[in-house]
Design brief:
The protein is mainly alpha-helical. It is built from 17 helices and no strands.
Length: 397
């Protein structure tokens, strides 16, 4: 493999743009959730708005089970072009949605945008393996940093435009146009390098996956780990989706509340960058146990936070520890593999489990919140699951 060169690093830049435009956009859903609950869909319970974001997030993960294999078969540009088009088209359709027309928003943002993001996610990251082996961790870290920066910029842009003269429709169209420009640039920069033995390797991985699947669930550490990720994903999106709404409902100045999601995503990005040395120092299981405990404690602490300083501190700390958690998950799963050929299958199974629980977790939190905005209920639900996960992880250490 080249391990560098102009073409390789331009491809990394293209992947960075994809992550910024697409997956970084999912981290801005808290802005939409706040607007939907208070204004655009205020005739419906908060759980309905949560379904939109959770479906979008789950589809962005589940679709990768199929697009990864299609990417291996040589259809990189087909996937990238179609997924990019679907993402931008769905955002423009969202801009045409009318207030209190739930199905229009759900189909365009939840289903359409979620599918579009999911279609391009795995192929774009998979492209890194065409150029890098020894330096792959560095290239991947640089590429996925687009998600973190996107999670910081998109909320600022959306909050500034939605509450301006442009309104909701104009704000969504501006963000759709921005994503279109970024995704077109990404398509021009990225170049796959398919080898002649790609098909044989794919067939070998396909057979190996089904051969080893039965063994995975007779492996207690893997069972506990996948169950822990399933439970944790029930509430992993709660702060991201509800922090801005929580801040506004507790009387914090909207000008500051609009930046809480940017703060959370900013330190989340920092936590992901630091997850690699943390794993080296403490090991994946010890690191996961500690970060799970910190996240659970912080969620419980949110109940007592009623001022601006506390909200800012929560956003910064929770984002940081959640970022470490996200950065540790894949290496933790990989460490359970007895052979390198199992890594992809094990990660795929765990992320599928996580996406299923993530699909229902935020709507449950929204349902518990209710129209009377009783924050004690979703906070207790989200915090308790953290200690259940902590118990499972201690069984592995």
């Amino acid at each position: 493999l080249p391990e560098g060169g102009t073409r390789a690093w331009l491809s990394v830049l293209g992947v960075w743009l994809v992550q910024f435009a697409n997956y970084g956009y999912t981290n801005a859903y808290g802005v939409y959730n706040d607007y939907y609950v208070r204004i655009y869909l205020n005739d419906r319970p908060a759980s309905d708005s949560s379904w939109i974001g959770s479906v979008q997030w789950s589809f962005s993960l589940i679709v990768g089970l199929w697009t990864g294999r299609i990417f291996d078969q040589g259809y990189f540009y087909h996937l990238m072009a179609f997924g990019s088009f679907l993402s931008v088209f769905s955002l423009f359709m969202l801009s045409l949605s009318q207030p209190h027309q739930y199905y229009q928003i759900f189909l365009s943002q939840g289903v359409g945008l979620g599918l579009g993001i999911g279609i391009v996610y795995a192929p774009s990251l998979g492209l890194i393996s065409h150029y890098f082996n020894r330096r792959r961790p560095l290239a991947l870290t640089l590429a996925v940093s687009g998600t973190g920066l996107g999670g910081m910029i998109h909320p600022i842009l959306l909050n500034a435009l939605i509450y301006s003269k442009l309104g909701f429709a104009g704000a969504v169209r501006v963000s759709a146009a921005l994503d279109a420009v970024l995704l077109i640039a990404a398509l021009l920069l990225m170049r796959p390098r398919y080898g002649h033995k790609q098909g044989a390797a794919l067939q070998a991985r396909h057979v190996g996956f089904w051969t080893n699947l039965k063994n995975f669930y007779t492996d207690p550490p893997f069972v506990f780990t996948s169950l822990g990720l399933f439970i944790s994903s029930l509430s992993i999106l709660f702060p991201t989706y509800f922090l801005q709404l929580n801040a506004i409902k507790r009387g914090i100045d909207p000008k500051l509340a609009f930046y809480t999601l940017t703060m959370l995503n900013g330190t989340n990005f920092l936590g992901r960058l630091l997850s690699a040395p943390i794993i080296d120092w403490f090991g994946p299981f010890n690191s996961m146990t500690a970060t799970t405990f910190c996240c659970a404690v912080l969620i419980f602490a949110l109940q007592g936070i009623t001022d601006a300083v506390g909200t800012v501190v929560f956003a910064l700390l929770y984002g940081f520890f959640a970022g470490i958690y996200g950065g540790i998950a894949a290496p933790l799963i990989s460490s359970l593999a007895s052979d390198r050929s199992e890594v992809g299958a094990r990660i795929g199974i765990c992320w599928t489990a996580a996406s299923i629980s993530g699909l229902v977790g935020s709507p449950i939190a929204g349902w518990l919140l209710g129209r009377d905005f009783k924050w004690t209920r979703p906070i207790a639900f989200s915090g308790v699951r953290g200690f259940w996960v902590l118990h499972l992880e201690t069984l592995l250490t």
